[in-house]
Protein 1
Amino acid sequence: MGKTVISTQNAPAAIGPYSQGIEANGMVFVSGQLPIDPATGDFAGTDISAQAEQSLKNVQSVLAEAGLTLANVVKSTVFLKDIKDFAAMNEVYARFFTEGCPARSAVQAAALPKDALVEIEVIAVR
């Protein structure tokens, strides 16, 4: 099995010993994307809507580096600091995934890196 590291400056750099994405056997695994604006290094906003939007934009950037789009996503996982933010996150999510939506899990996490409100990871296929 070969694997290819996916890396782009259009998404936040990894903050540890991991890759933004990995491709193996026609599948692309995008690491959890925090709501960090790669141009500034800061969170895109302080509310769940702004942070969910930036996390999804970061996911899109990693996928684009692999030559894919959100239409290639088959599974996503959304980690929320507070499950009460689910409805607001879901409104943003629905703007990004409009047809043939992927399978999804959404869970409340005890804590997220940098005290983010949301982190989103996906699996996509060619």
Note: The CA atoms of residues 49 and 89 lie 6 Å apart.
Protein 2
Amino acid sequence: MKTTINGLADAIAKELSEYSQDVTDGLKKSVKQVAKECKDEIVQNSPVLTGSYKKGWGTKINYEASDDIRVTVRNKTDYQLTHLLEYGHAGPDGTGRPTPAKPHIRPAEHNAAEKLMKQVKVVVKG
């Protein structure tokens, strides 16, 4: 690309803008992919009684703009059980047999954070 000294600043700004948008698009794609993988890992490790809880997991894009994205992994059907199953509970009214914790969300969240950091490095380096 040829440019004059006077047009150098504009040319650099244009190239940086294109690079920035490429990085942003790559990061948004990575976030969506990692969120799906996180959901899949939670589904795989979810406790099963009737299967409703396990089937209820999904991802939701809460917000997306040209330079930002926010994705949530959530349980659409039995969201009330997530804390009880993840951390365990004492049972009905605290008198029943205690239900032990079955961590399935925290490990998936931890793995997703590590995967995303690795992908961010790859996308930024190009």
Note: The beta strands are 57-65, 68-75.
Protein 3
Amino acid sequence: MVELGSVQVSQPDMIAFASKYDPQPMHLDPNAASFTIYGGLIASGWHTGALFMGLLVRSLIAQTTSLGSPGMEDLRWPAPVRPGDTLTGRIEVLETRASNSRPNMGIVKWRGEMRNQDGKLVMGATGTNFFGRKPA
């Protein structure tokens, strides 16, 4: 496991993100959110994903020769993120291999997660990243 660090989620940040990218009542308005199935304000799943990406880049990818990513799979948000939650990210490397078509590129498949301060899983995903390799 590679620990990515933690980030605290504030209500103003949640609302600002939702206002721009996911303007649904459960993300924007504490009063309106209290009448939803969530019983209160929750972060957009996309906000949680962006926070995960920030941790991943700052803790790992920025120290590498990153060549991008073809995407993620199995993105899930099994539990809501609430104002004041502290989220901790980590990844587990599932597979590494050299690219068959580009010998200067390595391919890493990983499983990532975010958990809140109570250890509850709030986001999970499988991703693939391309990294530069040194010549053999």
Note: The mean pLDDT is 96.
